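Quick start: what a row looks like.
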Amino acid sequence: MTAVPFGRGVRIAGTGRAVPAEELTNKDLEKIVDTSDEWIQQRTGIKARRRANDSETVFSLGRDALLKALAHSGINASDLDMIIVASVSGEMICPSTAARISEAVGADEAAVFDLAAACSGFLYGMNLADTMIRCGRAKNIAVIGVEVLTRLVDWSDRSVSIIFGDGAGAAIFTADPDPSKGCIHQTMHGDGRLWRTLYHPKLDRDVPAGDEANPIRLGHLRMHGREIYKFAVTRFQEAIREALDATGMKVDDVQQYICHQSNIRIIESAIEKLQLPADRVYINIDRYGNTSAASIPICLDELLEAKTIGPGKPIILVAFGAGVTWASCVWNM
């Protein structure tokens, strides 16, 4: 990676998404767990989610999303300087999913690593990519958000099994001569004191004191929904308000708000409290559920495909997740 002078911008050269073929509806879940379509929709806004089959993995979905993003970008995989994979559900700890994907697509000498920031992972990676390119340490960076969370849930636990879905989204970031393009404000935060609100214990020693009576089996996600909801509602609104204040923008100056798709009630609360224009707040949780790190890039790809966003007004992206983590990005298209 050759260093170049500061002062260049960053643009999104291409995006892509890959989702499993199987659609698991709320009606399907009624046969598995004590719940109902009405109950799920009222509390989450979810109508269906995608579930990976035995041949669909974090690796394969991430690879397919990246190949689509590369095709849209016109950039060769061999020209990628870096591949960042945001995920908490990869098949192997070593090697990284990014390393396997780099081999599959032909990005032979790209730097590769996985990033574990749960639902905030793609935004963490996007912010890092912008910074690396803007300062001249890289020219082309691929960021992938991908999850297969349905393999980590206990299907008898309706607090978790109704929420999560599988999928992948990818974006190619590249240098642009216009320094105004790309990220004009970003934040990345975490509060490890709240890690117990959503975690994935594999051994007895992983279960924190006070949670031993939780009936969810080891090897499955455990979530304390009420605590997560309170955290998310607060941080979600703070992140958007901070982004507007830091850039001097009004709510109508933003062409689209791209929010992590965790719960429709959290998004609706932000719309109401911040008086956001509802038609500029993208929602697809009804079709995909919560896909964690894949949530934001899937939204981004759908919006670009529909030509809903483009050059002109900035977009604001916001996410929060386990860890706990939260992040934001104001992006000038």
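That is the whole record. The CA atoms of residues 62 and 168 lie 6 Å apart. The first strand starts at residue 9 and ends at 18.
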